[in-house]
Amino acid sequence: MVFPGIVRRALKLVPTILQALALVVFLHVVGQGMLSRFGSAKYRFSKSYQTSGLGFGSNKVQKVIKYIDKNIPRYSPKPKVHKGKKAKNVTTTTTTTTSSTTPLPPPDLSVLEAEQENRLQTLHKSCLKYGIGSNSHDTPKLLNEDVKEMEAFLVKQNLPSRPMWQNLICSKEHKVSFCPVYKAASTFLLKKFLLIAPSAKWDKDSVTHLETQANVLARKEFGYLDSWDAYPEFTTKGTTIIFVRHPFERILSAFRDKLEDPSVKGGKFNEFYYNKYGRRIVMHYRKEKITGPSFKYPRFSEFLDYLLDKDLRFDDEHWAPFYKECTPCHVNYTFIGHFETLYWDMHLLASKSNLVDKWDDKNDYFQSSTYLKVSKEYFAGVDRDVIRKLYKRYKIDFELFGYSADEYIKMGKPGPDDVIEETEEENKSDILEGVAENKINDEIVNPEDMLISGIHVNNENKDDAMKQAETPEKSDLKMLLTEENLLVGNTNIEGKV
Predict the structure, then answer these.
(1) Which of 94, 50, 88 is nearest to 69 (CA)?
(2) Distance between CA atoms of residues 298 and 258, nearest Å
(3) Lowest-pLDDT choice from 87-91, 166-170, 241-245, 413-417
(4) Which is nearest to 387 in space by CA: 300, 326, 316, 310?
(5) How far apart (Å, rounded) are the C-alpha atoms in residues 354 and 357?
(6) Are 40 and 275 in contact (CB under 8 A)?
(7) Average pLDDT score over residue span 468-487
(8) Distance from C-alpha of 44 to C-alpha of 39, rounded to nearest angstrom
(9) Which of 65, 230, 254, 477 pairs with 299 at a CA distance of 20 to 30 A?
């Protein structure tokens, strides 16, 4: 019969069908777990990620995701208007401030040129010291431990050993080239370059409102030179510019701009950097449980732990070393600007490149939200040993451009060794201060404070001091008479002395 045969075949296929269903369920569970852990934010924090009624526990998961979604800070440039209420007129005013970040007038050009020469010499000497760059073969490097350690570090990190010409923005008309270092006023400087763009469609007003990023527009405007072989001659004969910043200040600025909780500064949630770096930092480097709306964002100390755990070649351009992005030992830079003296350096650069009318604007200067006072607040929560390790990671930048890490190391939390050293230094300073005070007191003679036999006395206790100031001979005589009279029972001693 046909029917029993079909039933038998169907029964034989039941185990296979069950195995297939089990495999599908397994792949689904694994896939959802991978999405929840490594997927983009729209899968992790979307309300429609799982709908209710599609499986056991789906309602519970949905509630958790809704809770997380409510705590994501939302950027709302317009004031909220509640239903049934009229929105109040909100006006914003812009005032000109003269705070501490307002730059002082630049000094004489001769002073700025002397400082510029000092910076170029520091860069040149450091490159020769470690034997790196195009002219390193001219002078043999010193084979000390410091040089050997740096050489091994550069090889291990696989940092570029040739010029990175592709990162330069070159203006053929003005013979000026620039390597942008991100988080070192790069946008401000690229806007300056747009003012001298070949298309001549940018002015001081239009560059303040760009439809896209400044580096993209600058690359479209200036492009590249005809060949890579044209770059050495172009950079040597023209003005080649690099602007740098204190490495620790730059790292902190990158963290605050790209990874920090946006509610701290009132900025916009950076989904790209959160998906690429932020959530992984929290996942792998969080050491303590943090609750509250900002639990999903990394802390500064966690970000530093992440940096110390990764190689330099994997760094993002916003916190990668200057050496990696602009190869200062391989490119002949003729002008080195510092973020800390940006206004003054732009004054000198405009004069050297004959672009005073375009670049030297007294009312156009850059004010950063990250400065020394802010740095103290962030680095105060970082161990000093971590800051020292961070210095070793960026040591090449510190030495090439003459920066120091001592002040920032003192900002950090001291360890046991640091406490001992500070205690010893305080004791030494107290001893030196005490010696200085004694010297001052010895030199001052107060008529009311006489010195008798090395004892300072005043009018009230002069009699006691006179008694203590007896001569040694009189003291010995008194002792002998005391012993003699004790033997004979005579107590009238004072009259005989």
Answers:
(1) 50
(2) 11
(3) 87-91
(4) 300
(5) 8
(6) yes
(7) 47
(8) 7
(9) 65
List the structure tokens of 120: 């170029």
The first and second tokens of residue 432, run together, are: 């030196």
Separation of alpha carbons 320 and 317, rounded Å: 5
Q: Are 405 and 248 in contact (CB under 8 A)?
A: yes
- The span from the CA of 299 to the CA of 281, in Å, is 9
CA distance 204 to 195: 7
CA distance 299 to 286: 8
Q: Decide: helix, strand or coil at residue 28.
A: helix
Q: Which tokens in the block code for residue 391?
A: 């210095």
How far is the C-alpha of 341 from the C-alpha of 116, rounded, in Å?
11
Q: Cα–chain-centroid distance for residue 388?
A: 13
317 near 254, Cβ under 8 Å? Answer: no
Q: Among the residues of 185-329, which ranges form H helices?
A: 186-194, 214-222, 231-237, 247-258, 262-265, 271-273, 279-285, 300-309, 322-326
Compute the distance between CA of residue 407 and CA of residue 375 in angstroms, rounded to an integer.
Answer: 11
Distance CA 447, CA 451 (A): 10
Q: Residue with structure tokens 């004069």?
A: 351
Q: What is the pLDDT of residues 135-171, one digit of tens each?
A: 555 545 556 788 888 888 888 888 888 999 999 999 9
Rounded CA separation 351/478 (Å):
92
Q: What is the pLDDT of residues 235-282, one digit of tens each?
A: 999 999 999 999 999 999 999 999 998 888 777 888 999 999 999 999
* Alpha-carbon gap, residue 200 to 86, rounded angstroms: 46
Task: Please report the sign of the dihedral spanned by the C-alpha atoms of residue 165, residue 166, residue 169, residue 173.
Answer: positive
Task: For residue 129, give both structure tokens.
Answer: 């010291």
Q: Which of these, 38, 65, 33, lies nearest to 49 by C-alpha position?
A: 65
- Cβ burial 26-57 (10 Å sphere, 16+ → b, else e): eeeeeeeeeeeeebebeebbeeebbeeeeeee
Residue among 185, 463, 482 at smallest CA distance from 341: 185
CA diameter of the chain: 153
